[in-house]
Amino acid sequence: MDDQGAFPIARLGEDVCLVAAGGELDSSTAWRLQDALGTAFRTGARRLIADLTAVTYLDADALAALSVSANRIHREGGRLVIVTDDPWLVRLLDASALDGVAEVEPTLRDVVRGMAVAELAE
Fold first, then answer.
1. Dihedral of the alpha carbons of 37, 4, 97, 105, in degrees to the nearest 10
2. For the whole prediction, is pTM greater than 0.70?
3. CB 98 within 8 A of CB 70
4. pLDDT at position 106, please?
């Protein structure tokens, strides 16, 4: 991924934002992901979706940025869902320090269904 521009942020509801990332997430782009997640959270959204389905590479710096963001969001009462169906990335995320502070879902459809079920239960 090139170093220009920010990751797109989309408001999906009153308290839901989606941050889309693609290409390579490494030391030159990890800060942009962390910044975009922080920006989305500061809008008042308490449920954030990091869509990584178009990510082709993720290094330790990007994993650290996700972890820092997820921990901050969790501490402040929010929830981060990471979307990817890449088996390597799922294993990496499962082995990381994200356990308990972020969820991993294979598709956006699964996230939206889960949100609908949660809203019905409330």
1. 70
2. yes
3. yes
4. 93
